[in-house]
Design goal:
The complex is a heterodimer. Chain A is of the alpha+beta class. Chain A has a domain of 116 residues: GMP Synthetase, Chain A, domain 3 (2-Layer Sandwich). Chain A contains seven helices and three strands; from the N terminus they run αββαβααααα. Chain A has a three-stranded mixed β-sheet. Chain A is globular and about 55 Å long. Among the domains of chain B are: 102 residues, no CATH class; 115 residues, no CATH class; 74 residues, Leucine-rich Repeat Variant (Alpha Horseshoe). Chain B has 56 helices and no strands. Classes of the chains: A alpha+beta, B mainly alpha.
Chain lengths: 178, 1182
Amino acid sequence: MAELINPSPVVHERKATRRRRTPSHPDNAEEREPIDSLEVFEHIRDITDPEHPYTLEQLNVVTEEQVEVDDAAGTVKVQFTPTVEHCSMATLIGLCIRVKLLRALPPRFKADILLSPGSHASEAAVNKQLSDKERVAAALENPNLTQARLPAACCCTGAHAAACLSAGMEDWAASLQH
Amino acid sequence: MASWAPLLHELVATELPERDHAEKTQQLAGQLRQAGTPILRLVEALGPFLTTDDDPQRARATSVLAEVVAAVPAAAAGEGDVVHLSQFFTSRLTDWPAVRGALKGCLALLSRRGSAAPARPALAEVEEAAAVEMMRACVSHVFIRALAQQDRTVALRLVTAAMRGYGAALLDAGLDLFEYLVSSVDGEKDPRCLLLCFEAVRCLLALYHRQPDTSLCHERLEEGAEELFEVLACYFPVTFTPPPNDPNRISREDLAAGLEAALVAEPLFAPYLVPLACEKLSSTLRQAKLDSLSLLGACAEGYGPAPLAGHVSTLWSALRPELLAPAGEGLLPADVPAAAELAAAAATCLARCVAAFQSGGGGGGGRGGEEEVPAGARLADAVLQDSSLQDMMACIQSPGSDAAVHRRSVLRAQAGARVAEALCRAGGATAAQALGQLLPPLLALAAARPAEGSSGGWQAQCLAWCAVLGMLAAAAEAPPSAPPAGVDGELARQVVAAAASALEAAAAALAPAVGAEGEEAEEAAPGPSAQRQPQAASWPLLPGDCTQQRAATLQLAALAALFGDPRQAAALPGQDVEAAVASVLHLLSAPCASASTSAQQAAAVAPLAALARSAHAAALSDAALPRLVAAAGRPQTAAAALAALQALAAASSGLQLDIVVALDQALQQQLPAAAGDPAGSAAQLMQQLLRAAAGIASAPPAHGGAAEPAAAACFLQLGQHLLDAAQLLPAQAAAAVGAEVQAACGELAYHAMRGAAAEQQQPLAAAAAAAVMQRGHAHLAAPGGLQATVCCALLVPLRQEAVRGLAGQQPAAPLVQRLVQLAQAQPDGSPAGHWAALAAAALLNKWDPADSDSAAACSSAVLQRQLYPACGLSAGGGSDAGGAACLPAPAPSSWRYLAAVGRGLAMRGSREADAAVGRAIAALDAAAQRWQAVQAEGGGPLEAAGSEAAAALQQLAAGAQAAAHFLEAALDGGAAGAGLSKQSHAVCKPLWQQRLYTAAAARLLPLLEGSLRGASAARQAAAAGGEGAAPLLASPVLLLALACLLCTAPSGVLQQEQRRMLPWMLQCLAALQRGPLADGELLLSLLLLVSDALMSSAGKQQAEAELLPRLVPALLELTAYRPVPAVRETALQCLLVLVDLPYTCLHPYRRAVAASLAAAVDDNRRGVRLQAARCRQAWTAS
């Protein structure tokens, strides 16, 4: 098996989150509770990391503070921070987040998935790949990504990555090897 | 030839799979046991196989013999048998292929000693010489590490059994078991074997310790301790993740506990163990730290002070960083809880160490404790001289006014306090020393009052009291085995005096605050008991939290901790306790002006309740009760005083009686005022008094024994006084009493009567019945009569003997009729009506079974003449369906009264209940037909109906709903609170609900099927006429009735009926979504039933086979049900459950589900959105 990209990541506790605002009156059944950053974070916090049996939250790859939501305008912006700046899994993680949000949010939402500024060696390239519609469409076909969990084989780069990222992902696997 | 011979031959001659082999061996053993065959016959039969040159056959034969010896010990009960068998198995230990059988045989023979059950005392045991020979062969020829896992398990068991039964003989024979075990344990990796290894090591060490001091064993131990420790230590800390579905169910905790017990068993490990544990403690892994702390605590307890005397400073220097970690520099707020948890574990470890050292004992019969080594004193001294405690004092003295500085100071003070608490928790001399050293300066700091008018000066007080409270609570937690030193009397007096004077000041400070803040938090009534104590014990992290109120709350908690410890409370002089009580009462009797005051008053209840349980309870009844009762009579102070009284009544049965008497008087005084001012404060006060009294009366008797009858008599007297007071009220005043006060009066009367014995109940019941029948008919029947409420409530919880006695004095039938008449005369929803119907139901329910004819006549009369006409049911019978007279009347209260009486009759098993249900269902059927007719007249579906038809439908819907809810109320099994149940001594036949449900369902289902057939015919006609097909639904009225029935049916019946009822549930879901009969709550209950059914495998199969075409559209429609968000959420949960069904049967619905879920993820409610997202994920991924 190939070496792990980050063999010993720092693991954090799962945080207890609480809404600051009190819930609206139960009598008013139709008052809207807007979609907020915590709700979006709830969707992505439990995505499993490609390399380790930890969630993205435990590895501090995503935090509630890095999620920005505007319910009325229908936009959500998620920034994520790979554990190491040469992480070749960054695109994979970003696509997982995008696929999960595509499933979980209403269709009127536009999601921007970006690397935190300065967190990756090839930040611009990865951000570009994450916005590539064809790549996202291909990712949606990949059952591993749609379930937002990756099998152990995906822990490797190189030949293994190419083998496991089938179904229209070859070009992307090739880009991973470079 | 014996019958078992073929089986034996099969077992020995062929290689069977493991499971088959075990089964067949069991069969063989069973046959041998049954036939009483001696082992000799088996050996004869096995003869050639036992000595054959074929290794596998020989091994199997040996194994079978050993298994039979183990399973049928009686077969080899004689001494001769045992001698021969032991010689045989001993010789086979050297036969490598047959070693498994040999080990099993040896184990079966050796484990007879020590474990012989009393049932089989005649079994011969292996002699010591033979056992020594056996183990000698084992030690020299069986190399355990080379065996397979299964054989290792047997071998380790054998060694343990030999040490248990023949240890001394083996050691005398010069066998080096120590060396053998060390070599066997070394490198073991299988968790099953490891557990056995740890046990064997413990057994070995215990055996060596049992030997006399002069024997060589101790030298051998000293010589080999390090080696054994090395072998064991490599497993610490245990890291083990059990494989999924592990049949052995061995957890990490099992292994860790086994290892810890083995390591703690030998004091000679101390020089190696302490450095190891300290090293692992410095790790960053949380589990390693926790294991190390647990090991250190356990080894202090196991070794005693002597072996650890040289390690005291190492121990403290390892524990100190952990204890102080939460106050460390640069710790992120998010990491504080984790650090605090570890610090708490370290504090427990410190307390265990100190307690073990000062008790001087140790494991293994006090081996280590003989020398007088004051290790405990040295550890305690090291801790008490530590800078962290001085740091705590400094931080408390000047915490700093800036928020960040304050927070830092609090964390540091808290860390110091944690160390001090650990010492106090150890108990004994150390606790006394710690308290003696730390309490006086803390009390001095707490006594420093801030300058007048300064707002930030309460920090030092609050923090000092936090520390005092923590130490007192820890000292109270000290193990009872510790020497009872604790707080000495003088210190306790100082604490009480300081708290009392501070509380006086706090109470005095409340007075001006009242005028300034006004009455704003009247409703924030303090809860009883000491639930708030944990909150009070938390340290104030913000400077703004440090107020005089917070300090007072902490002082009260400290008093509660002091009074709650019986040893300390007993040592306190009476006048100090009285002074403290006086100041607490002062605080309690201050007007409740704000939320903080009410929180403080809630905290004030705790010390009083603690005192009530202690030896000073007399001080309370003399001084506190009169003041509390007086305070309860004033509107501003009533809430706190009544909460205190309730807590005191719960704490002490002696006080309970005094309190009830006092409340009784207060109630009688207040009643006229409350009646004169129905909306004013007097009525509110009355309500509070009534609720408090009912709360005390309804609490289960915690003390039992002799106090119970006295309490019951006291409550009964309260009921009598309530009745008298109500009857003395003028008619107009009684009618004016508010509904809340009436309801509270009814509840109090019910609880007051409930506990009494039948002969005690009888006079009061007779008085109440007489009042109902004779006195003042006019004002009893007046709307909202208080007298009616009290009289009727008193009649509900009568015991059956009391009802019989009552019937002797007062004819029961007129009384029941009068009660029903009374109920019907009351306005809708009045408490008097509710209690009158309940009383009638109770009397009918408890009617003397010997007089069943008159009971039937009375119930029939009541139903036919009074209740049926009120509900619109024709008196002649329910057969004239379709007639206007038979439509259910839209009178919910009449239906409720009918339900109460019907329920009482059904609980007793009366047929009248079935008849009532039948009538109601017949009326519902009539309503269903009328409904259809109105719809047809109105020209089609509801939406298109004209305004006249719509009004008629509304009217019909109201009646149908009332009748359908009758089914629900009659069947309701919960009956929580005051009502007809076993608590109120009702006759309750087993399975009465099932019987009633079956009767109702048997009548309802044919009607539903008929209705469905009608709808089907109508649809066919419409299709022939070219109209669009409407969904095929039975009549909504009948479906409403079925839904009400299903929602209250007992769960066991529902499970049984699931297959038949699931399709009907779907009909109900479709029918009750819109129109005049729509009912969100009912839909939710039904959905929960459907979701439960779908989770069962039978439900899933049924859904897959037949229900999906109706189920999925119904659920999708409900995901958009606007009125109740919970319905949408539950419908989504049901959809999520469906994902478990096979892909092929779900596929046709995927598109429709996806469209509905796309809308649901943009729902207005967050819970619905999250559920929809989960559902969408599951449906797209499956």
